[in-house]
Amino acid sequence: MKALVTQTTQRYDLDLRVYQNIPFAQGLKACIESEGGAPLAFLLGTRKGDPNCKEQETFAPSSTWMPAFMRVNPILNWTYGEIWHFLKRFDMPYCSLYDQGYTSLGKVDDTRPNPALAVGRKEKGEEGGRGKGVGGGEYYPAYMLTDWSLERAGRVDKKKEATARAVAADGGGVGEGGECEAVEAAAAAVATAAAGACAPAAAKNSNSDKADVKTAGLIIIGDEILKGKTSDTNSLYAARRLRERGVFVQRISVLSDAHADIEAEVRVQAAKFDIVITSGGVGPTHDDITIKAVAAALGQGVSENEEMIGKLQEAYGVATKEELSDGQRKMALLPDLARLRVPPPPPPPPPAAAAAAAAAAATTESKKIWPILMCGNVYVLPGVPSFFEQKMDTIVDHFLKHSPIYTRKIVLGVDEVEIVEPLNRAVAEYEKQGCVFGSYPFYGEACPRVVITLESAEEAMVEAAKEFLLGCIPPEAVLHVGEDDDLRGREGEGASVAAAAAATVAAAEAASLTE
């Protein structure tokens, strides 16, 4: 760290002031006094999510226990990935510890390499720019961390470390250099536990883990869609299936087969949403560049994945990878920290059904489940609708937790303009409590028809909002009330036509009476 300070001071011709052997607050006070006590502002690297950030905004006065100054936080809303993109893009200097697997630097006694960056996928001796941690293990550099929620996983719990030191001091079965080894072991255990606790379920290693996610982004890739050669059905299917799990799609982007565009969009969505799903551009041809773009967006290289090579050998019935064609081997070029995910195996059948299950397994042996590629929080799926839908079903059914959404639907036989006032009253009363309203008019039918949808994470809330809205609308205008919010049905259409016909007959009868 001292080397970085010296290098940066010289490179940018900075005026460096050092305050030694005094508490931090006193050092700040001395600095301010050296400037004549004038109001000062300090440029900080604080970001949202940092333990000391709390309620800070871009400009935040100092805490009450410090001397008075203004804190300026220009990167307050930057993500971990955006920090590293900036540093690497503009060749900015950074501490060499970040190349040794450290991702968050604190004090010497509570900072360890991040266990999420420990080398495990690649064989030793393979290229990849790895560094040695304090315990001698190999780690990828900090910019290769794909799950940014694990940024602080290398920071050690001081209480547990103190326990390790106490055990070492008592001799607790530790030999020469035992204190250091005990502390290192405790640090590694704590850091590994932190990684497990902090990681979203989607980023953990077990295929049976289910992610508790709330937001998603979709990236549809293909010139054929932008040129109108084919329709995009994948985003519709994905949005419907995700919503079944309570995951809300916040953004859908349709991009051409351009590396820079895909890379930029993946970087943005991966930082904003819990999961991102891409569709298209993953085959062996020249325009299949999605995997390289995703890797670049996440700060990773692309290399031949041995697990994928094994899958390809099995699929194409060859004994060695050398027997695969160049096109086939291209499909094994994956991001360095890619994961190949498959659904967990089904539970064992009861004894009575074991024989039938074995026969069924033998019949389907040739129909191997093709793995789903996951990089960080990004799922990379094929663009062919039938394959895409199969993968989406696997993701939704096996990798995502279910957060129920409760819905209601009210179909009205009036023009939309006639329900603006009652709808606004319901929105003002219940939207702030978490109920979401939608209004969808249908035109080109025999009579006006509008569908009002309501949704909430709480069934009591959506039911109360529905009753409130119904109380604001004349009963004769209501054609149908249901518990779904599907717009594909045509509920109430027949009732509205019948109502119109009855009104026409009544008008005709009234006219005949006046003749």
Short summary of the structure?
The chain is α/β, with parallel strands linked by helices. It has helices at residues 2-11, 24-34, 80-89, 158-169, 178-198, 223-226, 234-244, 259-272, 290-297, 306-316, 326-330, 354-363, 385-399, 420-430, 459-471, 493-514; strands at residues 41-43, 59-61, 70-72, 131-132, 138-139, 215-221, 248-255, 275-279, 302-304, 333-335, 339-341, 372-375, 378-381, 406-412, 436-442, 449-456, 478-482.
Structural overview:
- The chain is 37% helix and 15% strand.
- The protein is globular, with a radius of gyration of 30 Å.
- The protein has 515 residues and is α/β, with parallel strands linked by helices.
- The strands form 5 sheets. A 6-stranded mixed beta sheet has the order 7-6-8-13-12-11, with helices on both faces. Strands 15-16-14-17 form a 4-stranded antiparallel beta sheet, with helices on both faces. Strands 1-3-2 form a 3-stranded mixed beta sheet, with no helix packed on it.
- The longest helix has 22 residues, at 493-514.
- The chain has 16 helices and 17 strands.
Fill in the keyword field for this structure.
alpha/beta; 17 strands; 16 helices; six-stranded mixed sheet; four-stranded antiparallel sheet; 515 residues
**Mean pLDDT across every amino acid position:** 80
Radius of gyration: 30 Å
> What percentage of residues falls in helices of 4 or more residues?
25-40%
Biggest sheet character: 6 strands, mixed
* Strand residue content: 5-15%
Decide which structural class fits the backbone: alpha/beta
Shape: globular
Low-pLDDT stretches: 121-128, 171-208, 362-367, 503-508
Q: What is the number of helices?
A: 16
Distance between the termini: 100 Å
* Order of neighbouring strands in the sheet with most strands: 7-6-8-13-12-11
How many strands? 17
